[in-house]
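Section 4.2 – Deliverable D4.2 (structural model, holo form)

The reporting period included a commitment to supply a predicted holo structure for the target in complex with iron/sulfur cluster. Inputs used:
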Amino acid sequence: MTPHMTPHTKRVRWLFGDQLGNHFTDDHDGEFLIVESQRVFARRRFHRAKAHLILSAMRHRAAELGERCRYIKAATYAEAVGQVEEPLQVIAPTSYAAVALVRRLGEHRDIEHLPARGFVTAREDFTRWAEGRGRRRLLMEDFYRDARLRHGVLLEGSDPVGGRWNFDHENREPPPRGRATLGVDEPVWPVEDEIDAEVRADLDRWERDGEVSFVGRDGPRLFAATREEAQERFEHFVEHRLPTFGAFEDAILEQDPWMSHALISAPMNLGLLDPLEVVRRAEEAYRSGHAPLASVEGFVRQVMGWRDYIWHLYWHLGEDYRRRNELRATGPVPDWFAELDGGATRARCLSHTLDAVADRGWVHHIPRLMVLGSYALQRGWAPEELTDWFHRSFVDGYDWVMVPNVVGMSQHADGGVLATKPYTSGGAYVNKMSDHCSSCELNPKVRVGEDACPFTAGYWWFLDRHREDFASNRRLAQPLRGLDRLSDLDELVAQEEERGSSAP
Ligand SMILES: Cc1cc2nc3c(=O)[nH]c(=O)nc-3n(C[C@H](O)[C@H](O)[C@H](O)COP(=O)(O)OP(=O)(O)OC[C@H]3O[C@@H](n4cnc5c(N)ncnc54)[C@H](O)[C@@H]3O)c2cc1C
Ligand code: SF4
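Output (structure tokens):
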């Protein structure tokens, strides 16, 4: 203890950049610390819109907290924390690296640890649930039902409202035929202010000075950087897009990047919105007759089902999970992909999706899973490198959410812990669920030759390479039999081996 400190000196609560909402501050009447470390951006090549969003959100929060917040700009966290004499308090950080950092700093000073916030369910809820499973799989569906019961969400007594837990069947529609957009109101966009102007000027200067380098474009900020903005936009979603959420959740329309999605992953992962309040508000929209049950259940399933489940798995599966590589994929992520160079490829789905990521640092779930992730899986790119790429390129990417989503869900590198079969497909699926193929030079039905669709050929090539890995996977028995019936398999394999990871 420094000489003028007493045991009653108030702790300063250190807020990480993803702990920016009221639910991280309301119960503390002392001071706060927020650290801006430029070195974080210098170490890895982030999307510029992501760097902008994070810095803008932190600086806005510091401005809101006013004199109660010490906003320290320093090269490293340790350097900044060294400038605070009072004892610290930390709410459980969201990555293994940050936990280790706090532990290291705690060896030399007094740091109080508080449990994690920002999720619907507590760590102990998950542990208790997982232990009660015995040898049964940790299915998201079962976790989600348990969480709904525990928190009394969409229930009639102890039964689900409407008599069903799951409306997925209603929620897998292809895009409406002949329509370029869903026709729902697009989100309202934030209006940038002087803090954004300052952030942009700083980023420009850092880039000019060669201190950092980014990918992607930093157009007008699209995602909420304050709680007020986040609430306003979420309310607009509930009003205008929640009633149509779900039905076209898996569909892609080139001219409608947002469709009925909520666009809340970025503000929720910054800690600006509390997921339980989001869930309760969606339930209210159902109870008041504003939105149908299938939409509301579909949305609640995403937030308190998938999001919480992924969060808990990150910790439950351990630090080494990020290095799982059951399919022995070692290819590097090629430059054209890493640089978000949509112009490099004739494949319309890839080109459009990479351009969209370059423009916004965001595409919805299906382009991530069934275009970008599926392509990487088929080509055998190293899951750990791909995770890093996703993390850096997406505005909502954080370690806890990217590792299970990429290693487990998208790359099947965990041997099936998260998903019973790999999420990948030929061009037929992309053609059914999007309007990409109608303007593509390539043909989803063709496997070999000039017009061959790299997804269709890539799908069979992937299965052929992994015949043995999937020999006992019942969900792949039919496609594996199909592989044996392909008369042109040798030609297809030679074609794809030659193409490898070069832009199709
Ligand atoms: C390869 C891959 C990488 C992904 N990386 C991220 C990521 O870094 N950060 C992130 O928040 N989401 C990630 N997701 C999940 C999902 O794609 C995004 O949460 C979603 O697209 C965000 O847009 P939205 O807010 O409009 O979502 P909506 O479609 O409106 O869904 C509502 C909310 O549900 C939650 N959610 C749904 N699915 C998931 C999921 N699988 N994991 C976590 N939360 C989920 C999100 O918080 C989302 O905001 C990833 C998915 C894949 C396949
Ligand atoms: S034909 Fe193949 S490459 Fe072209 S958009 Fe369709 S799936 Fe993508």
